[in-house]
Amino acid sequence: MLRDVNGQVVQVRSGGIGELLKVVILQANGWASDFKYLVQKNKHKNIPPETINRDCPNWDSRWLISQTFTAMVLEAFYYDYILEKESKSKAEKQSSPVNRYAYIAETYLNQRNVAESNLFLQLDALNKVRRHWVHNKSADVGYYKFPEEHFSPGQCLAILIQVFSVFEKNDSSCLIAKVSIDILKREQEKLVRL
Question: pTM for the full model?
Answer without folding.
Answer: 0.88
